[in-house]
Amino acid sequence: MTIAPDPIVSGVAYAVREVGGRRPADLEDFTGHVSMTVEGSTGRHVVRGQGFATADAARVHEKSDDGVGKDTRTWTVRAQRDGSFAAATD
Fold it and tell me: Which domain of life is it from (predicted)?
């Protein structure tokens, strides 16, 4: 049985509350197998998948089945001026 992912508003930034159970410190925190909690207009959501970082952003490929199944959406994570992180889907 396939479970549909939570509804997310595409292109709208969601605040990243934690990654790997703690507050993120830099974009490298979003590499490898990732579990991050985001919060925005549709509530709080847990995103699981594979991530990689570049110089100015991280990309997280959200996957079904606790982060090991099929791709469901891609998130771009960027550092904010206040030291926090925001993620938006493409």
Answer: Bacteria
Domain boundaries, position 68: 8-36+57-90
Q: What is the CB-side half-sphere exposure of residue 73 using CA atoms within 13 A?
A: 16
**Which DSSP state fits 22?**
B
Whether 2 is in a domain gets the answer no
Report how far apart, in Å, the C-alpha atoms of 61 and of each of 17, 29, 43, 49 are.
Answer: 18, 14, 20, 5
Does a structural domain hold residue 15? Answer: yes
CA 49, 71, 28, 22 dihedral sign is: negative
- Pick the closest to residue 49 from 13, 85, 40, 36 (CA basis): 36
Is 72 inside any structural domain?
A: yes
Residue 84 lies in a domain: yes
